[in-house]
Design a protein that fits this description.
α2 links the parallel β2 (43-50) and β3. The protein contains 3 helices and 3 strands, in the order αββαβα. It has a 3-stranded mixed sheet with strand order 1-2-3. It is an alpha+beta fold. The protein has a single domain (2-108), classed as GMP Synthetase, Chain A, domain 3 (2-Layer Sandwich).
Length: 109
């Protein structure tokens, strides 16, 4: 399990760098919030959040899908793995849920 955790941390670091410096599409204020790799190394889930309106979130999701193959190839070059898992981007709405809960708590006080 420790090897998978190290791999996730390394992939997250490299993924952030690739998106920041090499992806041609303007992704705005995107943050990679986490990476989860399945134990059998079949799938690699990259969780991200974007600051902006729903249209901005949709635009970023489309741009990430277009760049998916390039990003996966760059991760393969930078991270030593026998098999590069399928890369899947997922929007992380944890912050929005937290803000909603926070506003509900404030109205109760």
């Amino acid at each position: 399990m420790a090897k998978v955790d190290r791999l996730e941390t390394l992939v997250m670091r490299e993924l952030s760098e690739i998106i920041r410096t090499e992806v041609k599409d303007d992704l705005g204020f995107i943050t990679i919030t986490g990476v989860r790799v399945t134990n059998e190394l079949s799938y690699m889930y990259a969780y991200y959040t974007v600051y902006g309106k729903p249209e901005e979130k949709k635009r970023v999701a489309d741009a990430l899908e277009r760049a998916n193959g390039y990003i996966k190839n760059q991760i393969a070059l930078r991270v030593q793995m026998r098999k590069v898992p399928e890369l899947i981007f997922k929007y992380d709405d944890t912050y929005e849920k937290g803000m909603k809960i926070d506003s509900i708590i404030r109205t109760i006080k």
